[in-house]
Specification:
Blueprint (H helix, E strand, L loop, with lengths): L1 H9 L7 E8 L13 E6 L4 H17 L3 H12 L3 E4 L3 E4 L10 E5 L11 H22 L4 E6 L14 E6 L6 H6 L8 H15 L1
Antiparallel strand pairs: 1-2, 1-6, 3-4, 4-5, 5-7, 6-7
Length: 208
């Protein structure tokens, strides 16, 4: 809840367009002080390119289907079930269909909304419990791996409520990125997301 309120406070500054919330755990994941990992809020006067691309893609889908692409993904993943990692009242944890990295996991709110700062206290408490379970499962499955997580949400001043859906991306750093991946932005993932989700789900249940 403190994180949400801090983002709200920062976005009162009209010079700022975006607040990126992220965490680096482990030296390979960019942690400056690996023994003292912490969540970072970085206030920016620009919108990161990845957010611009997500917004553009979500807008195109909405213009074509008149539906949120993330809501469509949620419905499909729940129906299929193969990439579902964990569920709670307000959120779904899943391995994305086109996972960039082994054991990449997304946490997506069931209720449509474009902004993290609009989440209720009850939903945040639910998120905290689910997030803790997923991270405990990853620690058990991968022996406390280095990782990054990042919150993606609509920028300040962008009316994206109809078509964008905020979410969290958890990115275990098990492999080094090659020149092909960095230069071409095409990723080589040696672990199918279905296998990663099944194993992670088992590890989470064992930790409960």
């Amino acid at each position: 809840m403190a994180c949400r309120e801090r983002v709200v406070d920062l976005l009162r500054d009209e010079r700022l367009r975006y607040v990126l919330v992220y965490r680096n755990q482990g030296r390979i994941a960019g942690a400056v002080l690996p023994e003292h990992a912490h969540t970072v809020l970085l206030a920016l006067p620009v919108v990161p390119r990845v957010i611009q691309e997500e917004l553009a893609g979500a807008r195109r889908h909405y213009e074509l289907k008149e539906r949120c692409v993330y809501c469509d993904i949620l419905e499909q993943e729940l129906r299929d079930g193969k990439r579902v990692v964990a569920e709670s009242e307000h959120f779904l944890a899943m391995a994305p269909f086109a996972a960039r990295l082994p054991f990449e996991t997304w946490i997506v709110p069931r209720r449509h909304g474009s902004r993290f700062i609009d989440v209720s206290d009850a939903a945040l408490a639910d998120l905290a419990a689910l997030f803790k379970g997923v991270m405990s499962g990853l620690d058990a499955a991968l022996d406390r791996p280095p990782y990054n997580y990042v919150i993606h949400a609509a920028p300040r001043g962008v009316e994206a409520d109809d078509y964008y859906h905020w979410h969290i991306e958890i990115l275990p750093r098990l492999t080094s990125l090659s020149g092909f991946e960095l230069g071409g932005e095409m990723y080589i993932n040696v672990t199918p997301p279905e296998e990663a989700a099944a194993f992670l789900k088992t590890c989470i249940k064992q930790k409960e």
